[in-house]
Structures are given as C-alpha cells and as structure tokens.
Amino acid sequence: MSIFETLESEVRSYSRGWPTVFDRAQGSWLYSEDGKPYLDFFAGAGALNYGHNNPVLKKALIDYISRDGVTHALDMFTVAKRDFLETLNDVVLKPRDMEYKVIFPGPGGANAVEAALKLARKVTGKESVINFTNAFHGMTLGALSVTGNSLKRGGAGVPLVHATPMPYDKYFDGAYPDFLYFERLLDDSGSGLNEPAAVIVETVQGEGGINAARLEWLKGLSDLCQRHGILLIVDDVQMGCGRTGPFFSFEEAGIKPDMICLSKSIGGYGLPLAITLVRPDLDVWAPGEHNGTFRGINPAFVTAAEALRTYWRDDELEKATKAKGERIAQTFTELVNQYPDTGLVAKGRGLARGLEFPSGEIAGKVCAAAFDRGLLMETSGPDGEVVKLLPALTTSDEEIEQGLSIIKESVEAVLAH
Q1: Nearest Cα to 137, choosing from 198, 219, 75, 50?
Q2: What's the pLDDT tens digit per position in 87-103?
Q3: Cβ distance 354 to 374 under 8 Å?
C-alpha cells in the first residue's frame, strides 16, 4: 500500500479505517486483492442502494457502451437522457402526482445542493438560507455554509455566510414546542433574522448521526414555510432512492417540497449523477446560468433508468427495505437493553440505521472490530459517536443476519473491556 502513502493526499479518510486494497465487488460484498470477502454495510455512503455491479444494471451499461452510445454530451439531447427523463416521469413523478422540472447540475450531491441554493436566491431575491443543527449538505462553499459540522466548516478557509442554523427535531429533547425559536424569530421585527429565501433540510441526517426527524416535525416545517412564504428544499441525496423505504424519504410526511436534491443512488450503478427537481414556476434560469462539464453523464442515465424500471414499478423493494430496517432496529434495541449502563441509543429509519455510543473512540473501536471480522461500516455524528449502517437495499435477509451477528460480536468485544 506504499503508493497510497507516498502519493495520495492526507485528506483520504475511509481508507484509514479499512486498511486493505479492494479488487472486486458483487452485490453486498467487496473482495480484497488477496481474496478476503467483506460484507458491505456502507454501500458507497448510500450510492449503491442496488448493490455492487448489479447484474441487471451492468447488462444495460455494457450493452450501451458496446454499441458506442454517447458517453459525454454536456447538456445536449441524447437518447439516453430522453429515456431517463421519460422513465423518471412515468415511474416516479406521475404516480406520486408530482410535477417538477429537472436540473442536471453536475455529477455530485453538492452540485444538486448548490443549484437549489442559487435558484432559491435568484427566485426570491433574498440571500439568507435556514439550515439545521448537525446538517450535512456537501463540501463546496455554498453547501458547506449550510452544513453544521465544525471540522468540515473549518476547512473552507473563508467565512461561511448567508446561512442561519435552527434546532433540528429533538435537539432540545422535547423541552420546547417544535419551531418555537424559529417561529418567534420570524415573527419578531427586532430579532435580527434576515428574511430567508429557503429552508434546506434532511429528513434523516446521515452524516450528522442518523438523526431521524419525526413525520409530524417535517409536516410542521412544511406548514411553517408555506405560512411565511419560504421555499422548502429537501436534500434527499443520501436518504432518497428508497433508503428509508419509499422512493423519496419525505413521502410518508405528506409534504411536497419546492425543490428536491438527489444524487448518490439516482444513478443506480454508482456512476456519478445528480439532479435537482424544482417546481416548474421556479425554473427561471437563463440558458447556461448554472452549468458544468459533467452534467450529462449518459452511462449514468442508462443505469438510472434501468434501476427505476427494475425496482420502482411496484412497492416490493419499499416493503423489503422497511422489514430489513426493523430487523436491524430490533437487534440494536437488544444491544441497548443488554448494556443499560453504557447509554447506547438506537436510531434511524428504513435501512439508514445508527447505534450511538458514549464517545467516538468507542464507536470507532466497534467499527474496527467489525472490519477485522469482515464487515464494513462507518461512524457518523459530530464526534463520530454513531455506528452507521447503510447496507444495499438488495442485501438479502441472510446477509443482514450475518452482518448483525458480527456487529453483536464487535460490540461485546469492545464493551467487555
């Protein structure tokens, strides 16, 4: 591994927790170059909801490349883009009575967020955006300004302005009514709060520690935004595409955001793709006002469309995701009860699950113990105190049980000392 130590930047992170060189991947498994299998409960930080090298998506991709289908096209019209847009409309938007225009902002989730923030400011003529405690929206400057983590914000090197944090759901452990502080500042002409263009929110904060907002909190936030004429942006980059069960993570709250940011698993295969969905009346861009060289990655359009056709024409994947998530929650609750003096907390929704430990040091040791036993999972939260699970939605029941067995062994090994 010396070449990585010699040439790759110190900014690398995941490789520090998983010190091996991976070579192959299939389904929910990664294999090191010496052939050791690792059960993957990380799934590319949620970019691989349908697993590694999904055979259905792989065939569509190989067929497209083999016939010399267009790879790079900026924002030109292509057969692959048309197929993706038609499939997105027919399979996702129309059945949910959703009407949005589709922006292709660039290849990653931060691009989708930047487009939403820019458009919200353009539409409203206002600069300020409301974000939430422990939010994560990306590493570019605009997305970073609405991110909560102090380490990540500190990397900006410039002041991060025009954003105001508000308490996320359960931030005060129910000591105050929802939105008491936010609403009071909005209504008080002496509060000093700049009139916001938009609110940006994750329904489940992934990097922030698997903090799942209650559905009634999300509905209350939507109602507040409507009352005050504030645009609502849902960042569904990590929690969308079925991670919590439904295709969009906010569906069960019965809300319809003004803008939706999608990336990670929207491409299906792990290829870079991001889209920002916006209400048609908000689509006021001048041609080229927001652009990028890699906003039309056609192989990703191919795998994205195939994933939607394969997995979202019925509710089978949604039901299976919820059932597997409940199975993980059951085991996490058992661990909480098994170690009552440790202060463990089970968290999450669907197949975004977390187990909170007293410190990042302990959570890190649990993840290291799991790696030694052949399981990949990461930590999240302000201090890395939450063991975070994002297994592929296609992970089998047997693989879920295998992973949970390793997690139990790892927790016991660490807490027994």
Answers
A1: 198
A2: 999 999 999 999 999 99
A3: no
